[in-house]
Amino acid sequence: MQNPSLIQIKHSQNRQEYTAQVVVTAGQMRDIEARIFAAGMPVAALMEKVAGLIALRVQQLFPLSNNLCRVGILVGPGHNGGDALVVARELHFRGYAVWIYSPFSKLKELTAQHLQYAQSLGISCYENIEQLPNCDFLIDGLFGFGLERPLTDAIASTINQFNEWQQPIISIDIPSGLHTDTGEVLGTAIRATYTVCLGLWKLGLLQDHALEYVGKAELIDFDIPLADIEAVLGNTPRIRRITRKTALSTLPLPRPAVTHKYKEGHLLLICGSRRYAGGAILTALGARASGVGMLSVAVPESLKYLLVSHLPEALIIGCPETETGAILELTLPENTNLSAFSAIACGPGLTREATPIVQQVIESDRTLVLDADGLNILAQLYTIPTLQKRQAITVLTPHTGEFHRLFSNVSDAKHDRITAVREAAAQSGAVVLLKGARTAIANSQGNIWINPESTPALARGGSGDVLTGLLGGLLAQATKKQIPIEDIVATAAWWHSQAGILAAQERTALGVDAHTLTQYLMPSVKYEV
Ligand SMILES: NC(=O)C1=CN([C@@H]2O[C@H](COP(=O)(O)OP(=O)(O)OC[C@H]3O[C@@H](n4cnc5c(N)ncnc54)[C@H](OP(=O)(O)O)[C@@H]3O)[C@@H](O)[C@H]2O)[C@@H](O)CC1
Ligand SMILES: Nc1ncnc2c1ncn2[C@@H]1O[C@H](COP(=O)(O)OP(=O)(O)O)[C@@H](O)[C@H]1O
Ligand SMILES: [K+]
Question: Where is (6S)-NADPHX annotated to bind (predicted)?
């Protein structure tokens, strides 16, 4: 029989991994919460449990022993405010000097009770921000996932004042003022130093425009029964965060002992022009780091020896070129057609002169990654009708500008990137990777991965080319495996970011040029697998 404690450990590890992946909207969280309450959990007991965990975490982040003992607690009218009041009470009993700022006259019943009890303990409570003394840090319990209307008037200007103060702020669940799903600022919002997200990750915390408000985000698990999560989200949640574990699980490792280079994937890259020679090198170096068995790179003839000098192991195909140095015609080695490759990645540095080449690869029956000029040309050819003719898998990797050119009729990605990428994938049938600080990937069935960790060090010319090569190489190695394509795309996005993070740690955010990035791809996973 298995040792019960081992089963427990396994269970808790699985739970941790599961909750690290799941992402919910406010509506889903409300439905999950309703099931817990309907099953008999008293609302007050859940608040007590959750806020107790928040109070413990606050004590770790701001220990009394560091003389960080003066805390201001910002209390809103709903249960986010109730959580904050329980934290206030706990910190008061632990020896912190606590001041409550509670500007609302109408509070939910449970919140009002906690306020009354806190006052009965002698904790000072103020309605005006000016009365609040200078604190070491603040806890923001103004609004959580119940906020739907924009903040205006007095509360909006108070939040602006808090933001001007220098104290660190811990936001409970979500920085007050952010929309729980879109991450948009509803009037104004708290700029948090830390956000302690409760129970399950809220979608808004993973939207690009929320990042400057969220600070360092972490999840506080309060034992929501998995059955309740699954009842609301289904067996496989539609929106998930990429984790180290999910990413590493799709890597083509271990490599079988008996294999040969063509069994480990043959990627064809089509990239570069006389004007953009570097893009071809970076794409190929990204592909090299994927471990792909064979790498062929089609470039204009005049770039051939430049590529050979950087990638002696690759087969460089020099193609006839236009007067301005773009690929004129794809000349594959004798007896080879596009179907000979496991996958094709096309676009970086091509220029728009290469339209016939892009048309040719779209017509092929191979898994195809389109990036950069490959995407601009696709947009000119009309994205949806052109892709509808494809039988094979297509992966598009636009940044926001390319995305708008490709999908001018879908929702605005600036407003809600997740909805936009989901619509784009549904309309086009492609797997779409929308680049950004929090890159999002969708397939046509509405499954979404979000890359939750990255670095602005990657906001630099050429880093997208590296991703294209890496992704192409991983796809080429996965053709015979039963891994969903979007999972491999997610792995590429995660790996690319992890390399950026490692490089930035060692070299600062200024030291991560795209060539350096390619050299950090291997070290960023080598101790993991
Ligand atoms: N789910 C869980 O499992 C758990 C949830 N928990 C906690 O509950 C939180 C959700 O609580 P919640 O539903 O009470 O909503 P919350 O975010 O506090 O605010 C809504 C209040 O704001 C008001 N209001 C709205 N807009 C406004 C405006 N512009 N200006 C002024 N007022 C405005 C609105 O008033 P009304 O719309 O009625 O006028 C309402 O009173 C959640 O984030 C977490 O912290 C934990 O305790 C336990 C586990
Ligand atoms: N602020 C940021 N934080 C994290 N990653 C970023 C940020 N800005 C850009 N990136 C990443 O850098 C890459 C840039 O790609 P792209 O815009 O195509 O650049 P290029 O065409 O110059 O190669 C993408 O993978 C994107 O997700
Ligand atoms: K909050």
Answer: 79-83, 144-150, 173, 349, 399, 465
